[in-house]
């Protein structure tokens, strides 16, 4: 049963880490669509902003000036949290691979392998919390930005939605958290 639980947690951790990496690298965290005209579809992300013309499908992207330039707090904090979550999830995966029972590394000392699985679970849990904070921070800021525009009667035709990158970040963080719980709590 322990080996099946390890393999399940490992598969979930790989999938969730892939989701976190995709969320960090892609640029559709916030969708800006003009409902009244349906002329363009704008995706804003952590690294650039892309506009797609709905009539001919042409996509144009503008890179942000520099990584060190002044950016809104939501972009800087989300970048930092998501990159840290990616690094922690990658470290946890490397530790977990070495701690799996089906890997012959340190086969003569199962206590060390079990501790490696626990350690991977703790690292994965820390990464998942950081990724979830980053994704939710960005989503809440998108909601607050929309609410402020509506309360001031500005740009009522523009509709803000969470983009698929934001949803991928939340799903990846949640999956990493579940894998962490499986690794740290369910081996007894």
From TrEMBL:
Matches recorded under Gene3D superfamilies: 1.20.140.150
Record flagged with keyword Metal-binding: no
Membrane topology recorded in Swiss-Prot or TrEMBL: Multi-pass membrane protein
Alphabetical keyword list: Cell junction, Cell membrane, Membrane, Signal, Tight junction, Transmembrane, Transmembrane helix
Signal peptide as annotated in the record: 1-33
Intracellular or extracellular location(s): Cell junction, Tight junction; Cell membrane
GO MF terms, alphabetically ordered: structural molecule activity
InterPro entries recorded: Claudin, Claudin16, Claudin_CS, PMP22/EMP/MP20/Claudin
GO CC, one annotated term: bicellular tight junction
Transmembrane annotation, as ranges: 118-140, 162-187
PANTHER family from the UniProt entry: CLAUDIN (PTHR12002)
Membership in a protein family: Belongs to the claudin family.
Function: Claudins function as major constituents of the tight junction complexes that regulate the permeability of epithelia.
Protein name per its UniProtKB record: Claudin
Organism: Origma solitaria
